[in-house]
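> tool_call: predict_assembly(chains=two)
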Amino acid sequence: MVIEYLYPEIANLFGDSANFKYLRQSLPEAEFVETALNDVPAFAQRKVDLIYMGPMSENHQILALTKLRPYRDKLAELIENGTHFLMTGNSFEIFGHYIENDGLKTDGLDILDFHSVTDIGHRYNGFFLGERNGVKITAFNSRFSHSYPDGNCSGFAKVLRGHGINKEHGFEGITKNNFVGTYLLGPLLVLNPLYTKGLLEKLGANTKPAFFEASMDAYKRRLDEFEDKERNLD
Amino acid sequence: MIRFYIALWAAKLSQFLLRLLGRKGTYFAGKLAIKLCPDFIGRIGRPKTLIGVTGTNGKTTVSNMLNDVFASWGIELMNNRYGSNVDAGVASALIESAGICGKCKKDIGVLEIDERSARLIYPYLKPDYLLITNLFRDSMRRNAHPQYIADILTKHIPKESKLILNADDLISSSVAPSNDRCYFGISRLPNEPDARENIVQDVRICPVCAQRLVFDFRRYNHIGKAHCPDCGFSSPTPNYLLDSIDFDGAKMRVKESGETNEYKLTANAVYNIYNSLSVIALLREMGYSSEKIASAFDSLKVVQSRFWEEEINGKPLTVIMAKGLNAVACTRSFDYVSTEPGTKSVVLMLDDVFDEKESSENIAWLYDADFEFLRDPSITQIVTVGVRSLDSKVRLLIAGVDESKIVAVTDEKEAASKVDIEGADKIFLLYELYRYDSAVAVRNQIAQRMKEVL
């Protein structure tokens, strides 16, 4: 199994590299590839099972988009063929029609049917409680942007508390086949051991995530807090 | 103008009444004044010379050092030492030092200024000197990312301000590029490795051409000296270069404008040595002689609320402010503890006080902090304390700390009883800034046990 982390030198703003580290500890037999901005991505050269990318500053997001543009058709083919993608924070916005920031539109890879709008004057922070395939998702939001589906897009998780892909939408994130794009950032996989267990199974690994029991203890306590209506999660 | 005077007098009256009630350091007066007169900060009198101190880490320490130096010279300052560092705190400090007509009674002012408050302060108040300690990741909720903060500063720093910048920090040293500036930096010291690996390293690519930077050496995070092999971009050359430290003799040597001067070393940790060096650079730029500065340094101490060590029955108990939600500041504390000689038991009280009361805590920052330092074999026990103790436990496990060394305690009252008093040579307690009072309570319980057991 091959797991690729795209652009770790810029796509790791909020503890997100923990997702890659946690996968590495959970899948000791797998091969882990870190692809720098000037490298040819592994997915362009051979079979990769999961491609990960984390959030970036707004300038770096455009840089990553520029670097991925030559591989647009390959990425579209991989998404269509069911390769797993986990794109956290604003990294998934690269896959939409365009990213608008301060009136300037930058063309995205135009693979998925949505667009994004960045408003650097207004930061949205909040906690997120959602549900995906019966599993509760606990996570964090911190962003300047929102995304807007332009057609038939599936969400990553149903919103139970907090904001989704935009302030009105009832779903968080964008999915297509095994592509998961989500604004939820930070150590998402560590925070959600049950979701991670399901992801490992889908990748064909019949194993529990690393430190599963300790992660579950922390997850249950967090879930109690997030489900407590007395607590402010905005 | 009438509006200004109404605001000034109302604010001064509120300060007088609050003082009668025994309240010090509140920013209420400033808040009231700005509410009544939005450009109040620009209308009230300012000292003849105004120094601003901003940056992610060290601005309180640097401001306090400056206050102490000026006090040792018998100079009374306008400052916000006991107040807040946002616009209302700055306004309160100005009101405090102003007469009834709004004229400032002090010649020199030192203001610690929150970096995100730049847009609310600098349009009205233009520091003659602005010292930027560094720019790192901080709370993602408030500060987003370092480039966001650097852009805010570049946009709002007055063009008249002379900047005192950290040459070893490629983020803060690049702000407001058209301003007059000088740099301070520390040479690679003997025994320093080529690169200290940290999770957070926010300058990996060239800001000019986006090629991968080559670090000639990296002290921690993105602090160090780098160049771009493609376009020639490089770290700036320091005007004030600390090139030698004598830890035993507590001296540091600074090369400045062709001369070399010695100063007392007021701290052992390198991040605090940067703070001392920045103070020297600023004072030299203001025209004070190195002899006068050196003499003032002889009486300086590190602020005790941030570093407090006491030996109890022959065993050191050390309390360090580690600044929760701030991965880089915590990492520096972890690094410091891990390299201290002897075996250690470490108590972590890092939960955010406000999040705990009102909602929950975004613990993503734990994964930016290098808990990996705490897997050092010299650390024999780690007690994680608070509602997030289970999250800290998971973080420690992922860092490679053996589970048998970790004790997770939710209730602070139980923390002291879990500390292995006899098993380690030293005991450290690392606490989040706003958790000081409860950290002191736990520290006192540990001290009591040490008196009983040892």
